[in-house]
């Protein structure tokens, strides 16, 4: 940062005041400029729409006036009379055209067929102006180019009403240049101009008639030319029927525009003025403020010069007095005029006078104290020598104490290490005992569970034995029943043999009887067949019974073997149950002892922690004592060094005292 060094306080004050006045004037100029600009812009944004509104109302009144005149003329009964000759109607229209200054007039019937004063016929069906009028709404068309002569025209249309019914439309054609002439008459400064656009944004009135004739449309043109986007956006707001103000740029020039709708025609009137003209008064104001500011700066500089001189003159006198004191002359007197001042300069001069008197008293005191300092130096010198001798003895003693404490601290560290090793082994033993205790509980639980399972198994084996006993009994019963069935089968065989023999005898007797015994022979033959079949079945049954008997005998033998094995297994299970009971009893005896051992180990571990804590505390204390001894030794050594330094300082102080007296003699105090 650049710093300006001033050799004169008056210059510094002068430039500071001028700079302050300049900053204030510059600030006032900037603030005034901003406030004025904002006020003007606010006024423009308020006044331009109002001016545009007044102009639009004037045009709207003119349009309504023309429509009213045309409506009054349409009340002529001849115009609404369908039977009236057309030439009579044309004569009326020509007179009205001449009287009112119309370019042309026409009458159109309800079917849209029309005729004008020039004798031309046409059909207006579908035309907006005609359709509105035939619906009962008087209206004016947008300015359009006449096909007959290429001039700009405006068509006014009103309904012809007869007996409350719409029977036709009366139209008048007027020059469209009247709108441009009116907008050209609206002057706002040098650059202000007015123009009118239709409901689709087409320019219909302006001082630039070429643009009107070419039917220029910024809204449509902005689609190809992006530079027209700002004014196109504003004109979109205009055709929407709004009353407002806006700002835009065209060809690098800033413009303000106020606009208001012409409601009866659906048009919008805008008044455009360049920003430079609107803000021209600000430039004049700025120039005036600059001139006034320069004048204030000159006046302020003159006043600042006088003020700086009145301030710096007594300061310069004070500086001269200080320079005299700085040279060692304390005999001068400060003027009573300066001492009597009541401002800051007077306070400064009084402070200088007080300082001079204080220096005089101090110098007198220094002279008196210098001799006393020499005497004290000699006394301190003797004390410092005794202090140095004592510090050497203390150093030797503290070194011996520190050595003993260091050895003791080392022994305590070894004890701590041994106790920590014992602690680790004790912790391992605690973990092992906890594991054994846990395993003992698990063994007891498993033994209890196994004993229960064995009891259940004994019950199951008893049930199986009972089932096998029933099975053996039933097997023997089956064997006995099979023997009975075998006896019955033998009986059936005998009966079959007898039946077969009887059937044979019956057949022989039937043969002897001849025809009379033929039926009996057939019966005897069938009985013989049944007997043979019974014998065959009996043989098969005997064979099956023999096999079943063999299997039953084997099954009985097997059940005897299984019964024997089950009895032996039952005895083994009883033996296992007794063993499990013995194990459970042993585990029950061990468990309380393990709990007691666990508690004893826990108490031992707590005692170990206390011992370890005590040893660590003793070790720490020993280390602290050793460190303190070393610090005492170091401090004693430092004390010896300090005593030596005191000797040196005393010599230096004696030398300085001598030099001080030499300097005091340089001051002129008498």
TrEMBL record:
GO terms for biological process: chemotaxis; signal transduction. Residues 383-633 form the Methyl-accepting transducer domain. GO terms for cellular component: plasma membrane. It holds the Pfam family MCPsignal. The chain crosses the membrane at residues 12-35, 289-307. Residues 309-364 form the HAMP domain. CDD domains: HAMP, PDC1_HK_sensor, PDC2_MCP_like. Belongs to the methyl-accepting chemotaxis (MCP) protein family. Keywords: Cell membrane, Chemotaxis, Membrane, Transducer, Transmembrane, Transmembrane helix. It is a multi-pass membrane protein. PROSITE patterns: CHEMOTAXIS_TRANSDUC_2, HAMP. This is Methyl-accepting chemotaxis protein McpC. The keyword Transmembrane helix applies. It is found in: Cell membrane. The gene is mcpC.
